[in-house]
Structures are given as C-alpha cells and as structure tokens.
Amino acid sequence: MAEKNVITSMLDDLSKEQPIQTALCLGQNLNPDHHQLIQWTYFSVTEFLMLPFTQRYDLGFVLMDTDEFKDLAGIQKSQLLVKLRDLMAKRIVVVTALKDEQLMRSLGFTQLIDKTKHDQDFALWQFNILTYKHVPDWFNSKFWANPENWNKFRW
C-alpha cells in the first residue's frame, strides 16, 4: 500500500482545491485521524458493485493494490471504476500497481505521480469531472453555423 503520509498530504491538497465533506473508500478502511471533517464510508468490492445509487460523494478513494483487488479480473475492475466515475463520486483517486496503466488511461484517468520518480510498484491516478475535458476555443457561439443567415433561412 502507498505510504500513509503520501495519502494524507494528497488529501490536504485536494481539500484546498475543492472542499471535501463526504468520501467513499474501497479496498481498505481508510480513515485518517486529522481529516475528521470528512465523513468516510467504506465498502468492500462486492458491496460496492451491488450498491444502488443513493448519493454522490465528493471523493472516491480506491486502493487497488490490496488483497481484495488481486482476485478481480480486468472487466470487474473496469466496471467498478466506471460506476464510481459516472455515478458515485465527483472526484476519484486510485492507487494501483504499475501494470494497470492501460486500464486507467482507457477510462480517462490522469496520472498524479510519475512512475519514473520512485522505485515502488504503485501509481496514483485521478479523475475529476470538472477538469476532464478542456473546452476548445472553437466551441462557442462565435463560430456556430453562419450567423449572417440567422432569421433569413429555415434550416
């Protein structure tokens, strides 16, 4: 598992960007002592996959380098992350082994820690819906259709 001080410092940084009030944790019951303002909820993998959508959490934290995830196939990991990304959490942080890089990139996650900077077998990934896709310059009303023909022709 990733060092606790890396996780707690990362939580501090994420809290500065956007306030975190509710958090969901998968893989290990993680409840940092100094983050008492965050309401943590822990689920096992099987509980989470059967969990109906009742609320959206501010943060989803997944520790995929634990024993609970070692028996899961790639499709089950993908289902879990997609459900978490699309329904359950606004922002997701995932700790994985280096071998899961292709899965994480294919689901739209961005890497937080460069794997060449450390010797351990873990990578830190995030997904934030607010920064997932940058709006291109051409995607605004200035460049739509032919404004000079508005109210002249019916399309």
Give a topology summary:
Layout: H1 4-17, E1 22-26, E2 39-43, H2 45-50, E3 57-63, H3 67-70, H4 74-88, E4 89-96, H5 101-106, E5 110-111, E6 123-128
Parallel strand pairs: 1-2, 1-3, 3-4
Antiparallel strand pairs: 4-6, 5-6
Task: Describe this protein's structure.
The mean pLDDT is 79. The longest helix has 15 residues, at 74-88. 29% of the residues lie in helices and 21% in strands. With 155 residues, it is α/β, with parallel strands linked by helices. The chain is built from 5 helices and 6 strands, in the order αββαβααβαββ. The protein has helices at residues 4-17, 45-50, 67-70, 74-88, 101-106; strands at 22-26, 39-43, 57-63, 89-96, 110-111, 123-128. The protein has a 6-stranded mixed sheet. It has one domain (4-132): 3-Layer(aba) Sandwich (Rossmann fold). InterPro entries: DUF6231.
CATH class, please? Alpha Beta
Question: Can you identify the CATH superfamily?
Answer: Vaccinia Virus protein VP39
Largest sheet: 6 strands, mixed
Determine the strand fraction and express it as a percent band: 15-25%
| Largest beta sheet: strand ordering | 2-1-3-4-6-5
Structural class: alpha/beta
Distinct helical segment count: 5
From the spread of the alpha carbons, the general shape counts as: elongated
Tally of discrete structural domains: 1
Q: How many strands appear in the DSSP assignment?
A: 6
- Secondary-structure element series: HEEHEHHEHEE
Average pLDDT over all residues = 79
- Stated plainly, the CATH topology is called Rossmann fold
The CATH architecture can be named as 3-Layer(aba) Sandwich
Q: Radius of gyration from the CA trace?
A: 19 Å
Helix content: 25-40%
* First-to-last CA distance: 59 Å
What low-confidence regions span 5 or more consecutive residues with pLDDT below 50? Answer: none
Pfam families: DUF6231 (PF19742)
